[in-house]
Design goal:
Length: 454
């Protein structure tokens, strides 16, 4: 359309130039020849030669340009002087000036071909668009069948695997990239299940090792606890044997009465320490009953006292040089609660053992260091609170959030499985309780156990 517009404009200028030359030479036949230059164009609608005159108004100050049609082809057509281009015709004008007359050439060319071409382009574009649309739909369905459906199946299977279902197996019939991906996914799930089985077996072994380590710690403490009353029993029994032997050589009743009095006192002490050993054994049997998972009415203060002695004597059995200042702040008004005493005792024992271990580590690095532990029980917001605070090495801020994760340990290889605190956390969770920690490196660590009273 732009080219056509320029072409008609050039034709109008060419005719105007021809007319100007003919009029200048007063060659009036040349004027007709110039007009005939465009008559044979099949797109021509009209060609007009207009005369323009300047007419002064009555005031002789202003003037009006008057345009008059001088010659037109075809002659029968009536051309409005103010005709403009529209959808069906393109109108262009070109002025000329000569000594004989001034005027302009007005050309009108048909745009039917261009309009028809534009319509054809629109029709063709519409047809192509419809074809592309339907082809796109077809390709979309084909892609959905070949790609989207298998990929969505893989996505759903991956989500289920992430939720713990290791039985996923995505079916595929293709041998393309999607098929290869599906086969790789199925193999990954199988390998993951095998690895998980191995990890589960290893975890069970580590849990068993952790239990055995706790049992060893407890056994050392029990042995130390029982050893004290047994030593008293043995010593007083030997004294009684010596006193009875002396009685055979005595003749005075007063002396015999004095020895009998000593014998009685020694027998009372033997009975006292025998009962103490019996109580220790009975309590340990109560706490270590196989398969016991029922809650019992539990005195938290007594349980804490008992496991404090076990933990302290346990580390003393390993290192006789270790001494610790222990401050007990037990709330005597603490009510009894329903709990599994063996499990809660295991938590307390584990935390106390860790506290003693941390203090012993700091003592090894700082010989002048004095280990000190504060053991507190109390109540808050309907819960029993147990706090164990030591002045050991503390926990670095960078690992504080990791200490409850399974298999995470700060102890050297072979000394810890990394399951102690994780198991403690799970035990308290089963009791609807909680376990939290506060610590500052090289200053203190405080673990807090929360157990519901009701």
């Amino acid at each position: 359309m732009r080219n056509y517009n320029k072409e008609v404009e050039n034709l109008a200028s060419t005719v105007a130039l021809g007319v100007k030359i003919a009029l200048t030479e007063q060659n009036f036949e040349g004027v007709q020849t110039a007009l005939d230059f465009v008559k044979n164009d099949p797109h021509l609608r009209f060609v007009s030669m207009l005369q323009t005159d300047t007419v002064w108004n009555n005031d002789s100050i202003s003037f009006t340009v008057k345009r008059t049609i001088f010659k037109t082809f075809p002659e029968r057509i009536n051309i409005p002087l103010n005709i403009q281009s529209n959808d069906s015709i393109l109108v262009k004008s070109a002025p000329f000036k000569t000594s004989i007359m001034n005027g302009e050439i007005l050309l009108g060319f048909s745009t039917d071909e261009i309009v028809e071409s534009k319509q054809q382009i629109r029709t063709t574009s519409l047809i192509v668009s419809i074809l592309v649309f339907f082809i796109g739909i077809f390709i979309g369905f084909w892609l959905a069948k070949k790609i989207s459906v298998p990929v969505l199946a893989l996505r759903d299977a991956a989500l289920r695997v992430g939720e713990g279902d290791r039985s996923q197996n995505v079916k595929t019939s293709g041998r393309d990239e999607i098929g290869d991906l599906t086969h790789a996914f199925n193999k990954m799930v199988i390998d993951l299940k095998l690895a998980e089985d191995k990890i589960t077996a290893a975890q069970e072994q580590l849990i068993h090792a952790e239990k055995m380590a706790s049992l060893g710690q407890m056994t050392a403490g029990i042995a130390h606890e029982i050893q004290n009353p047994l030593n008293f029993i043995n010593n007083f029994s030997e004294l009684n044997i010596d006193l009875i032997s002396e009685m055979d050589d005595l003749h005075s009743d007063e002396e015999k009465k004095s020895i009998l009095k000593d014998l009685k006192g020694n027998l009372e002490k033997i009975s006292h320490h025998g009962n103490r050993a019996d109580r220790i054994v009975k309590n340990m049997l109560l706490h270590s009953r196989a398969g016991s998972s029922e809650k019992q009415v539990t005195n938290i203060n007594s349980l804490c006292e008992e496991y404090l002695q076990l933990a302290y004597h346990g580390i003393r059995a390993k290192n006789s040089e270790f001494n610790c200042l222990i401050e007990k702040r037990f709330d005597k008004t603490l009510p009894e609660i329903s709990a599994m005493p063996q499990d809660v005792g295991r938590v307390v024992l584990n935390l106390l053992s860790n506290a003693f271990y941390a203090m012993e580590e700091r003592r090894q690095d700082q010989p002048e260091f004095k280990p000190a532990l504060v053991f507190t029980t109390g109540m808050a917001n309907g819960n029993v609170i147990i706090q164990i605070r030591d002045n050991g090495k503390g926990i670095p801020e960078s690992i504080k959030e990791k200490i409850f994760e399974p298999f995470f340990t700060t102890k050297p290889t072979g000394e810890g499985t990394g399951l102690g605190l994780s198991i403690c956390y799970d035990i308290l969770k089963a009791h609807k309780g909680a376990l939290s920690v506060k610590s500052k490196e090289n200053e203190f660590t405080e673990f807090e156990i929360t157990l519901p009273i009701a």
